[in-house]
Amino acid sequence: MSTGAQPAERRPVPWRLVLGVVVLAAALVLIFQNADEYTVHLFWATVTMPLWVLLAITFVLGLVVGWMLKTRRARRKG
Questions:
Q1: Which pTM does this prediction carry?
Q2: pLDDT per position in the chain (78 positions), as tens?
Q3: Where in this chain does the record put each Lipopolysaccharide assembly protein A domain (predicted)?
Q4: d(CA 50, CA 34)
Q5: Which one-letter DSSP state was computed for residue 4?
Q6: Spatial distance between the Cα atoms of 61 and 78, rounded to a whole number of angstroms
């Protein structure tokens, strides 16, 4: 006996989502495999930190810049 409920349609997974997951996975592997101490010289400051922290900071800064550019482009179009 049928309850009248139809199965949900399967939509294809967007390629941007797949690419994003692959890039995130690669970044996480890179970050967690680099635990050595590293000295960073930026202008007048010198900081020693684990390399994974530096990579994580760089990754987050890249996400922020990408997000900012995306919102700027969206404002210019519309």
A1: 0.59
A2: 556 667 678 888 888 889 989 988 998 888 788 889 989 998 999 999 998 888 889 889 998 998 898 877 777 776
A3: 33-71
A4: 8
A5: S
A6: 26
